[in-house]
Amino acid sequence: MEMILWGLFFLAAGLQFTYLLIVFGRFAFFYTDGNKQNLDLNSSGVSIVIAARNEAAHLKDLIPLLMQQNYPEFEIVVVNDCSTDGSEELLNAYSAQFARLRAVHIRYTPAHLTSKKYALTLGIKVSRYDTVLLTDADCRPVSTNWIKRMSAPIRNEGKTFALGHGSYLALPGLLNKVIQFETLMTAIYYFSFGQWKSPFMGVGRNLCYRKDFFMQQKAFKSLWHIEGGDDDLFVNRHATSANTAVVAHPESITVSEPKTSFREYFIQKKRHFHAGKYYQTRDKLKLGLYTLSHLVFWTAGAGLVIVASNWEPIALVLGFVLARAMVQYVIIGEARKKLEGRGKVVWTLFFDVMYMAYFWVLGMQGYLSKTVKWK
């Protein structure tokens, strides 16, 4: 039994260090902004599309903020999805005030379609420009150069997809720290694989792609029956090494309001994991190999400590644990500098264990669930 545990532990440790140093490390240490000198090379129009249901309180602040973007030609298309909170009146008033704003009001959603995908499809369909930049009503760009940064790969390099980072506000409390760590790890996953020319997902809080491509693919064809996945599944189906770029720059990120109760957070993550089971097999393997080796590393290591008859095996296990923790600390810190302009993530070892438990508990619930809702 002990030999089996050692075999599993060393195999898992090898996979963990491979992912940390090679897959994630390449992004953390070697990513460079390819559009640094070419942000203004082509200033073609950009359509910001937002699907919103009962988001009047957020739209009231977001729309004037977006109007301050440092970009010559853009519009904002807000799709009011059957709201009952005064969103329609607010959007009509803002439309009269801001020439760049266009509002689309949905009265009902066809029974065979999922609501957010239907709302986004209508918004993209009526948009004026080929470059479409997506975000949510509760998101805020941190910079007036957000449009310029996020749309640059499409405008200047001819890419179809540009994948951005959507972070969350930092608030007091354990839940918020868990959210910050999980969000950062998710970003490191898809930015790292994106840089390795193997993109597999994006986030709707900060995602840019071509309208023409979206319409050529018949919008969310084959995804209509899935609640959620308007962002990660659409990217998963169509992003390739040739047509996709990642945008990692402190000026390119958006910040959202995080959940403030574990119940709301679990519901949100259950929806995200539910969509994940529809990823292509190769992408499930990429993620599964890391998460499974992560689980085996900790469980086999704990098993070895329990069955150890002297201090040598305990010291060896702890040595690997500390070495991995140090490597992870550096990798996460460097990746965060690329994404958000700041480093250090404290207590990485503690949150790494919490992340493992969260992933396997919520992941299995989301994967096995049959029904989830947008709102």
From TrEMBL:
Keywords: Glycosyltransferase, Membrane, Transferase, Transmembrane, Transmembrane helix
Molecular-function GO term, any one: glycosyltransferase activity
Membrane-traversing stretches: 6-29, 287-308, 314-333, 345-368
Domain called Glycosyltransferase 2-like: residue spans: 47-165
Superkingdom to which the source organism belongs: Bacteria
Pfam families: Glycos_transf_2
Family: Belongs to the glycosyltransferase 2 family.
Name of protein: Glycosyltransferase, catalytic subunit of cellulose synthase and poly-beta-1,6-N-acetylglucosamine synthase
Species assigned in the record: Cyclobacterium xiamenense
Record lineage: Bacteria, Pseudomonadati, Bacteroidota, Cytophagia, Cytophagales
